[in-house]
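Exercise (ungraded).
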Amino acid sequence: MEDTICAISTSMGIGAISIIRVSGPDAVNIVNQIFKSSHDLTKVASHTIHYGYIVDGSTSVDEVLVSVMLAPKTFTTEDTVEINCHGGIAPTNKVLELLLSHGCRLADRGEFTKRAFLNGRIDLLEAEAVMDMINAQTDSQRELAMNQITGRVSNLINDLREDLISIISNINVNIDYPEYDDVTVVTNDILLPKVQAFKTKIAHILAESRNGQIIKEGIKTSIIGRPNVGKSSLLNALLDEEKAIVTDIAGTTRDIVEGEISLNGIPLHIIDTAGIRQTEDKVESIGVEKSLKTLANSDLVLLLLNNNEPLSREDEELFKQVSQKNYLVVINKCDLPNKLDISSLSIDPKRLIRMSISQGTGLDDLKNKIIELFNLGSIATADPTYLSNARCIGILENCLHKMEEIEEAIKNNQPIDMLELDIRLVWEDLGRINGTTYEEELLDEMFSRFCLGK
Amino acid sequence: MNNIYDVIVVGGGHAGCEAASACALKNHPTLLITSNLKNIADMPCNPHIGGSAKGIVVREIDALGGIMGKIADKTHLQIKMLNVAKGPAVQALRAQGDKIAYPREMLKYLQSLKNLTIQEGMVEDLIVEDATVKGVILADGTKIYSKIVILTTGTYLKSDILVGNTRTRKGPHGEEPSNHLSDRLKDYGFQIIRLKTGTPQRIERSSIDFSKTKLELGDDTFHTFSFDLNPCYRLEDQVPCYLTYTTAATHQIIRDNLNKSSMYGALDDIKGIGPRYCPSVEDKVVRFADKERHQLFLEPESREYDDIYLQGFSTSMPPEIQEQMVHSLPGLENAKILKYGYAIEYDAIYPTQLTASLETKILHNLFTAGQINGTSGYEEAACQGLMAGINASLKLEDRPPLVLGRNEAYIGVLIDDLITKGIRDPYRLLTSRAEFRLLLRHDNADIRLRKHGYDVGLITEEQITKLHNKLSEISRLKEYMKSTRVKIDGHFQEIFQANNLSLPTTSLSLEQLIKRPEINFKIINQIIEIPFTSDIQEQVEIDLKYEGYIAKAIKEAEKLTKLEKKQIPADINYDLITNLASEARQKLKEVRPTTIAQAIRISGVNPSDIAILSVYLKKEYNQNDN
């Protein structure tokens, strides 16, 4: 017999109400024991809501609404009860304690979703999407997650697998019935355009999916530059608040400061890094090391230069680093006399912005450049039926890579049955995306990531 | 009770011969009971041995110490390698057998075995005590005792011959089948299923006009199934086959008379399920209505008589319609039909009732092999017979059974499929059933399996030494390939130009050279003579050329091996796992997989069920193992 589990499903703290969810064979029974009302919960119809009090013996703990949903039409497919109590940490915790003392067990991280998956209510992709849904902060994110929950992405993957199965089965018939000419014999010449078409299809999905990833995860943006060129000021200007400490003493920002703004509905995670320069100061040198690491993980790097100072060796060094990345060069302090000569750096003019943070000029230019660079204008309107998490995109990237190898092997005249082996691996990999192909490690990893309560 | 044998084998077909041979070679007094000595190693259907995947099985049988390959080598009419234009993993031998010489050689061989007694008789029941088999009971009531019984009854369990609207209780040659054994098995608790298969007409050779057909010759190079025999035939003595096609007229005749076919309504009591991959010509015409013609092969059955087997034309039409159908074929306008096509319906055991050693789960010491397990094909039968024989003998010796992995042999794939997935129609081995076919090649069957044959005692010291020598030759040649460099001199350029190849820019090692897709040993030998035999060269060429693919296959196989280590306890109670889908629960209870790897392969058991099962196992059985 499965345990009956419970957890607070809303985020803790301030809020008008919080919801405690109970799921398992004893859910109704247990809640009924601590619920005082004119109704006996064990006798009410499924999917109904009831008003009453949660009581500890004769003491009322909270005035609540209780929803009773009976198996199997619930998220976990088990009997489920949701208690809507008043927000606030103390009453919510009290209700939770009462449930625990009446036979519930506190749910593990991700356990409700795990049960929904294990009970066949949702597939793997959907399970992942549930987590995305919970964490969604913008409408685009919610829509993307919803598409995954309703299985549209699963269908997309299944269609891709169908494409491959028709190729695989034809080759297999050729192998198993070599003496019959009834079936078209798949040769490398016939296979090549099919593989190329399939590759294009994956590449397209992948490109769209990366957009999806941007919608979900935002753009990791870091600001770098020599000390005191105005990095923290830029961050503050973007965030419109005094988050980083701004002084005119070089080296004040000793750690990485993070902030988030929304650009066309896409989150932009901005990271202000400690000024990068050769330093003897121990605290600061840790900051510099961290900055370089942050740089490596960024989707976008803003390199800040000072219009009022000549180009230094360090600036050149920094440009060399960012030019490998997706970068924008921002020249600050354009209100002051020009002493900067950037002709020695080969900066793409499309990636150059002049501004004065103190005067408040050029900020919109910067935002527009970013929108342009990431195509954010069109992302929001794109069909959101795409993969939107790193695991799925990783697998798909791997599939694309394998298809490229197959294409190469076809051109190298590898025998058709060898090619089929690789096509089959791609087919299996695609199955790993929506959990059609069994993969053990995945389950453990996935469910440990789910937040408690859902 | 002086008639106590270690093993009784019931049925002398391809499974029975291998089973009896294996047990007798291992010095277990063995009795082979056959309804008729004439039916030993009978080939009642098509005359060929081998083919895609099946040819590799014959090699595997030979590697393990079985006999099918050796008898086939000594008696075939022609032999060829299939799929030569494709990669090495799918190549397989196919021989045209001789329906007289093959059984005769087999009987001669079996009679030479000193621990084997062959007796005619019809087994109608088993002696069973405490769910353990103790022997057999013949039709006349005679009881014969043994420690183990292996049933290899083929199609002879309640077989019915179907032609047009007639049903006759007969075996393939019109002899008596076993009428009670399958009922008795049902009484013991076995689930019995009914299957059917069909066979085409035999035509008199002299009545065929071969000028209207296409010649199909054997290869002009030598081949043998066996790793131990040298070719014992002359290339020019191979007997040709011929190819012809159905015509629009044939299809019309079939469509007009469809209701007269046993399978299309002439008989309304057909329960047997026929093989999907080997449809009757009625099925072909109905199901593939848009096909203008279907291939038919005219195959000689023996050097010693004139029958030609009309491969691809199996039917259960009444004789007068078969006459019309045959005469509509190019070259067969005046053909004389010696034997009409027919369908045969028979009883079989649903194979999930077997363990991986082919012992039944219901009765101890009872093994079954071949068509009784729901397979079709001589090779499929023979390899099961060999495995049943090996495992019966190992059981007698108190040794663990030999269970071949899916990454080790087609035989392993076949048995695992049977006991894990069960069957819907008669099971035929196909290359596509093997997920690790690159490892399961024709050329390396000895490397894969001889060691097992040696361990169980069917492969001799001499044979295993030969294998070890081969292995060391292979590594020597690999070393040689690595260390030998060739210069791009005039001689080299000449050969490359003659073969229309693009020249390499710098000197390179032979290893680098052979890895080029367009290079093979034939070309390399023109540049520099390789001082190794051709079979060693073949091995090294495959190993080096397909190194990347082979490495990938090995990696995939290791994933399987890992899952195979996740054992499911024999006493697991699936009713206690609350979240399993009901179909999955039922299938798991039926198959009782021994590992997670096997459970994954059961149809109807989904990844989420496997996840639930894994979680349950972790919780219930491995709690303290860290």
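Further reading is listed at the end of the chapter. For now, observe: Chain B touches chain A at residues 52-53, 82-83, 86-90, 277, 288, 291, 294-295, 297, 430-432, 435, 437-438, 517-518, 546, 549, 552-553, 556, 563, 578-579, 581, 600, 606-608, 610-612, 614-615 (CB under 8 Å). The mean pLDDT of chain B is 92.
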